[in-house]
């Protein structure tokens, strides 16, 4: 092994160990006592990983000896696997690093609108990931239940308008539908096989003109379920046309919603309080006064709690 | 910046850039085209993190220019924060790296049995972590519901024996109870304030002698809920006395369980199929024949699906 030492004087040391097989390690010693060991190796076999584990065991033992159990805390993190065919890291909406148990790339295509991935997780089943955002997994019945009113609604004989949905995705991307139809059947069943059934019709087009047409025709719905997109993460509504888009959808939806109808939609990660507050402010700026309630739900594949909204037209005194 | 280049010939390059302020970066170029950039800096302020983000933006842009959009994939992972007072990384039972939204250390003590941490998560509330294992968070009603039979049981007038429990933790560690009593009230309510109530009694002692005493006295229960420990992860039952311990608990529990009683317990992460299979094999080795069912449940703070067992004495033909 080659050893290279850098001494910052004020900032401690960096020692780099380079092995002939392409592996290397950094030992970073901070003056206040923090010691960081990073080992990087190129392995695509489990044997290599076991060797790394054994090496780290030895480093840990040796350090404990050297410091005569004066070490306050030792922490070893699981290895990060990079550059492989399978990418296991899909950060949460609130920016945390989480590793999924992905073992297969089922589908990976670019549509004109976005990158569409369907990855297989051992525990969650197939997961739909649109441009890096986890959208829905086969385990996520909780999502569908939440965006349908958490089992408290009786849909018998009701008129329901779903924007997006079926797969939790954008409604004008035929390739999302094609991918989900084939690989997310636990989620969509056979609904996407035929775009028209006895009591439903799937339109693959921009929902804005459709909503405008319905509004003009005076067609009204008992429920509008907006499953188009999460609340924008940006917190500058004046800069971001997505907020305007959201408000436009909301206004048009209210126009086609019966006076006693309900509008269901997802919000965002419960931790993104600024974005959620901004969304709620948009609700006070619609053409008609509305009221809302919200519910925090655990969607298994999200690895973070998610907020769902129920919105209804404010009852006016007669 | 100081630049140091190492050329492996067969294995590509490692370039180390060292900055005067104690930061450094590794650029690892593999011959088959994988390029890894690792940047390590010592920052405890958000400003430092923004600078790092801006720097990585520049690196990404420059690389895209240099390779004339011939880059197949670019992935940037959230920074890993190490060495701070707050540790945000609590790997899952199946060994995956997950970052929690921890923002406060509420309690951190060593008892004679284990390290006991209660950390505050923005979304999950207080989380009890015993020797590094996430045990239960205030968000985890789903755990309690699952280990009580998922709402399908009527406990009115029934005799119930809970081993462990209340906090999901070991039953002989007074310090766990003390910590939970104060910091996990959403989970335990006021049950731990008084160890004896109108219809319950909490014993802080080893459950084995208690079970033996009950068995000897002929005291029988409608339900036994074992919330002592997860199924051991080790898959060598002959080497591991934990399996014997588990079987002893199971045998004693069956002795105090009425013929038509039910035994509830947690299993393990759904991905640890070997450990779960071994557990199920233990069930066929008890003094009396038993049958079981299992259910997979999403416990919010676990970030992995968890298996729960219901076990009952096999009905014998009369």
UniProtKB/TrEMBL annotation, chains A, B:
Q: Which Pfam families match?
A: Spermine_synt_N, Spermine_synth, SpmSyn_N
Family affiliation: Belongs to the spermidine/spermine synthase family.
The residues annotated as the active site are 227 (proton acceptor)
Keywords, alphabetical: Polyamine biosynthesis, Transferase
SUPFAM superfamilies assigned to the protein according to its UniProt record, in alphabetical order: S-adenosyl-L-methionine-dependent methyltransferases (SSF53335)
Q: Name one GO molecular function term.
A: spermine synthase activity
- Which top-rank group of organisms is this from? Eukaryota
**The gene coding this protein:** SMS
Pinpoint the PABS domain residues.
88-313
The answer to whether UniProt assigns keyword Ribosomal protein to this entry is no
Record protein name field:
Spermine synthase
